Amino acid sequence: MSKSKFAPLGNLVRSLREGKGWSQKELSDKSGVLRAEIAEIEGGEIEQVGEYTLRSLARALDVTMESLLVELRK
Predict the structure, then answer these.
(1) Is the dihedral angle over the CA atoms 53, 59, 65, 70 positive or is it negative?
(2) Confidence bin at 74 (pLDDT 50/70/90)
(3) Cα torsion for 55, 56, 60, 62, to the nearest 10°?
(4) CATH T-level assignment (fold) for domain 7-72
(5) Better-scored residue on pLDDT, 27 or 74
(6) What contacts 37, CB < 8 A, 6 or more positions away?
(7) 73 pLDDT band (50/70/90 cuts)?
(8) In whole angstroms, what separates CA 50 from the centre of its chain?
(9) What pTM was computed for the model?
(10) In the chain, alpha helices (H)
(11) Which long-range contacts (CB under 8 A, 24 or more apart) does 49-57 make?
């Protein structure tokens, strides 16, 4: 499967998550985003990422939503 335009976002989410020493399950628990969706985002295999998901991940990772959105413009 080819990587989507969300691959840079997935790389950032993975980097931030790993920087905190969290598993995908821990990020899921802290953000309320399903672990399977986090795996798809990190793998660049997702077709669409909604605003709620971005806000939830940003809040849990202690970054701004805008910093995640920048990755979508790359």
Answers:
(1) negative
(2) low
(3) 0
(4) 434 Repressor (Amino-terminal Domain) (1.10.260)
(5) 27
(6) 46, 53
(7) confident
(8) 11
(9) 0.89
(10) 7-19, 24-31, 35-42, 51-61, 65-72
(11) 49/6, 49/9, 56/31, 56/32, 57/13, 57/27, 57/31, 57/33
Q: Can you read off the two tokens belonging to residue 71?
A: 């990755």
The residue behind tokens 């985002």 is 41
Q: What is the pLDDT of residues 13-68, one digit of tens each?
A: 999 999 999 999 999 999 999 999 999 999 988 878 999 999 999 999 999 999 99
**What's the length of the chain?**
74
Radius of gyration of the chain (CA): 11
